[in-house]
Amino acid sequence: YYLGVAEPLYFYRQPASWKGYVGAYDYDVKKVALPTDAHRAQQAIFMAIYHWGIHGWVPYILVALVCAIVSFRWGMPMTIRSCFFPLIGNHAYGFLGDLIDALSISTTTFGVCTSLGLGVQQLARGLQFLRDLQPECQPKTLCEASGGTYDLNTYGRSSCTNLPVDAQLKTCKLSYLSDEHIKDTQYTIIWILTLCATMSVLTGLNKGIVTFAKIAFSLGMIVMMIVLLSDNTPYLLNVMVQTTGYYLQYVLLVGFDCEAFQQLSFEFAGPNVNLLWGSDPTNLRQKLMDAGVPTLVSSPDCGNRPNPCSFGIISMGIIAQGAAALVAKGMGPAQANATVSLAALHPGASGIPCGTIPDDSDFGQSGGDDANMLLDASTKDYWNGGFPDFCPKTPFVDVPTWGSCEAHAYLCDAQDLYFGDTSKSFMDWWTIFYWAWWISWAPFVGFFVAKISKGRTVRELILGGFFAPTLFAILWFSVFGGLAIKMERIAELALQERPDWEHAAVDCSEHYSGGVPITPNAKKLAAEGYYMLTCLPKDTQIYHVVEPYGLVSGFLQVMLYVGLIIYFVTSSDSGSYVDDLQSSSGLSEPPIPQKVFWCVTEGAVATGLVASGVEKALRAISIVMGLPFTIVLCHLVLALYRALKKEVGDADILESKRFNTQLLDIFEGFKPMSGSPVPVSKHLKAVVTGLLCPGYAVYASMHRMHPTSKDCGMRESLVYGVLAQLLYIAWIVLMICEVKFEYASSIAWLLYLFKTILLTYCRTAMRNKYNIWGCTLDDMWACLVWYPFVCAQLQIQAETDGEGAQAYFADVDAAILVNTRSEAAKENRVAKSVAQ
């Protein structure tokens, strides 16, 4: 919602002060060639749609398809365990099914709570923004009410001058949003949303949940259409058209982009931070440094990147003087250095010109609201002293000669300078986070798509599920992203702030401090409703982008805020509804106490995440829950393929069989519902034998397929068995040798792969002999991950000659028959009650 502005703008431009001082543009993303700023703008909108478009909906549609088939076609409960029935049969009814449903419920809960935890921050900030819209809270009104003169031709955060000596500038700051109360406010917002979600869930799917969803969508569409018609309509329509073409051209390329070469930079990272395969303290940088080979370069060899000594209004050269002034006031040296350094990186409460040296009088007195901050009065005095409006951006290739700045040691990564690589961490913190987030939402969004798709065909579900959301994403991001980029460009031109567009950066410290305009030009521009949006908090950017529309602006801002609230309510109530559905084994109307329980649980978890106090925790929880559920989704692909083959009546699978034991029988204590041809003790013995002596399973299976001496069966079987056992032993020995001999483990895993291939060959041959359905890739995956159970399966199949093997869909057919009879009985009861 609010990311319609914030996300494209993030990829388009960021404050250089975020990373410029440490020499790394971590937000500089280049997925394709960007010869001009226009190309970067187009890529910015594309990247947002890439994250929210087709790729984001793959997990949802996958779950929806499997769920719809097993629920509406086969009559099974609407749970994730039922979705696995085409793949694992009756095991879905057992302990493994319980684990799958538990994981699904946890994933749904934490996925929704991540949204609530992140969203509550925007909602809290939005309260202050809406308060400031009131006429009595306008800066000019507050200034005049305080006895001052409102003048935009001033420098500093405040535009109020000539205040009486003892007067203080009145504010409309909400007390419950202060630092000491913000957490309590966020908790309150979470529980208000939870209460609304609870009421929505209690009223049912077709009343509360659907109604909230329709209202939220309608509010968003109304705002989008108003700004589309109120602004430069041809421009926005052009953005839509070319964004569609850009997306179609590059979505396949970017979808397969793994940033392989950018991530080589991890090889040059410090000890223990190499994230590539084989990470250890002896990474490439450490080895080179130990050998006396430098892996860093120093200024002035860092190319044309901005020199932090002369970058921005508050220059790095005044840190020592500023820290000394704070120490003189009683602050500890370490804290003083940290305070002034932070002011230099993020230009503090007020900006001061380059080349000036603050003293004790320039800082607020301890105990006040402006304690240890640069005072507006001092800022004004400095600017009136004749200093220029803009600081020279001295690059490293030049000698810094401005004001009190001095050349200083500066290190930058050689690979960034030499190769122009963009961020090595972008994919982890954006694409991977997003996809993990989508995966964590897959159960409840997939269930909803399935629920509303009853009576549709598979083709209709795919077309509607993929293309409708992607088309809406193109419209939303084109309109709001296009407006954000337009406003950013207008502000940069008006303020004569030339961006470093090649690195997606612009200097905010000239005109903004803490998201507030501090120069006359920036203040006058803001009065007209235009800002360098990049320099403002991302939570409020969407409200600022609609400011140029006069009297309509306030209405649009209120609509956006209300829509945001309802969107969070719909997310919470939908998640609670699906948790109810799964925890009640698919009941369409779960008990009311259970509905309340899941709503309260989500509110409590979201409160705990917010209490942790770090956004990283909110991001991490999605990734942590998304990882195991990714494995579930990968296996759902196999389940979907099998379910569709049954639905279309493919003879190859309908006429085939399964092995007479299954890889997952261990989850049922080797007593599966479908039965077993051998006792538990023999099955367990076969698993242990497969674990320690896989060669015997290979020998047994090959001997079954070549039993006569005429075919050299005995000799061939022995060769295969001995080879498999030798590969297994060599794998273990070489893994142990890794302690002393580096890279021995590499040879070990190669031999393990050879053993896997040999075992795969045996399993494929066994399937062909007994008409067991499957494919070589299935066999290889099973042999790679479950080799002891594969060995046991092959051994028992060979020793029993396939006795007791069932038809491939025997479990499914039995379940469908039971469900059909149950539905028929239910209809008879209804008919009798109506007749009576």
TrEMBL record:
Q: Where in the cell is it found?
A: Cell membrane
Would I find Transmembrane among this entry's keywords? yes
Instruction: Name one molecular function that GO assigns to this entry.
Output: transmembrane transporter activity
Query: Where does the chain cross the membrane?
Result: 57-76, 187-205, 211-230, 432-450, 462-485, 548-569, 620-641, 718-737, 743-762
Give the keywords, sorted: Cell membrane, Membrane, Transmembrane, Transmembrane helix, Transport
Q: Which domain of life is it from?
A: Eukaryota
The signal peptide here is none
**Where does this chain mainly localize?**
membrane
Pfam families to which the protein is assigned, alphabetical: BCCT
Query: What is the membrane topology listed in the Swiss-Prot or TrEMBL record?
Result: Multi-pass membrane protein
InterPro entries, alphabetized: BCCT_transptr
Q: Name one GO cellular component term.
A: plasma membrane
Q: Which PANTHER family match?
A: HIGH-AFFINITY CHOLINE TRANSPORT PROTEIN, HIGH-AFFINITY CHOLINE TRANSPORT PROTEIN-RELATED
Protein name in the entry:
Uncharacterized protein
Organism, as annotated: Favella ehrenbergii
